[in-house]
Amino acid sequence: MKISFLINSLDMGGAEKVLLTYVQALSRLGLYDISVITNKPSASKIQSKMEEYANCHSIFSLYEYNNTSPIIKLYKSIKRRIMLHLFLKKTDVIIDFLDCDFDRYIKSFKQKKITYLHSSFQHLMRRKKNIAERCTIYDAIITICQDMHAEIHSFSPQWIDKTHVIYNPFNFEDLKNSSIDYSLLTESTLNILNGEYILTVCRLNEETKDIATLLDAYNLARKQGCNQDLVIIGDGPDKVNLEQKATALNLEKHVIFIGECENPYVWMKHAKKFVLSSKDEGFGLVIVEALYLNGNVISSDCYIGPSEILQRGMLGELFDVGNKQALSNLLNQPSTRMPLQDGQLDIYRADNSVLMLHKLISGISNAIN
């Protein structure tokens, strides 16, 4: 059977990492001819790794994708439709992997269609015009946690028969191996790693993340005796502003911006605490990773995601979004967390998620025949 995944690009990112895990596992089943179709090519390691397991096609060159002139915009609209028809002509099932991004281009296609929703429906309604209407073209909608599943049913109860919960897949053995791989560390970063530090890993985009609150909370914590550094891994449009904020708080000697990091897992393993201070999350991949590698996790209680992963506070600490005083208290609080029990994170194992997706694809394909 031929299946095709659609996603904007294979640049480094959470959804892109998840897709790679899916494609690797589905490829090992030996049941599918897999294609991954993107709007633009990428030089990322995800792209090069994906090419080992799937046929990868880009609709536009990088020049075409980045050109925003009105004439080129019209040309791109026409070319996208033509190329999708060519790439998907022999596909049995189309999987639009990120929040209905391709809905208007594939709605006339006769193949069965699946979409993944990676953000809360409330957030998608703010960010994406007519998202509820756009979801109607799909034969199945996959949500990535139970809270999101309940939320979408409250908005659209009529979708109860076509929505499915499939948790994001994790290859824990790969995480474990990466956490003991020091090969990419320089002498200076190794010195930081061997010290005491609090860690966050996220895209530096304050629209959905909230490193500003973390910096304020860390500043308060230092005044109350916290002597651990704060390590921030990630890049994004607000990096410079956040560096300036750290300097304005006189924290430049204690807040370390690592930038984009190919292997954040070695940092997770050695951190004293891991913090996610987001305003909004769909799932929170890094929470599962940090739980597995470290166990000392603090997260904002976003509308969707972290609370479910942390089992309403049983597996980690939760604080109200934007509450810098509460976060400061947690940063200073000694950890009393017990190690995770065997099997506590098994629901996130790649084999489980891939089996559920395989069953869904099989069910849809049977409906075709």
From TrEMBL:
The lineage of its organism: Bacteria, Pseudomonadati, Pseudomonadota, Gammaproteobacteria, Aeromonadales. It comes from the Bacteria. Transmembrane segments: none annotated. One of its GO terms (biological process) is carbohydrate derivative metabolic process. Gene3D superfamilies: Glycogen Phosphorylase B. This is Uncharacterized protein. InterPro entries: Glyco_trans_1 (IPR001296), Glyco_trans_4-like_N (IPR028098). Residues 194-333 form the Glycosyl transferase family domain. One of its GO terms (molecular function) is glycosyltransferase activity. It comes from Aeromonas veronii AMC34. SUPFAM superfamilies: UDP-Glycosyltransferase/glycogen phosphorylase (SSF53756). Residues 12-172 form the Glycosyltransferase subfamily 4-like N-terminal domain.
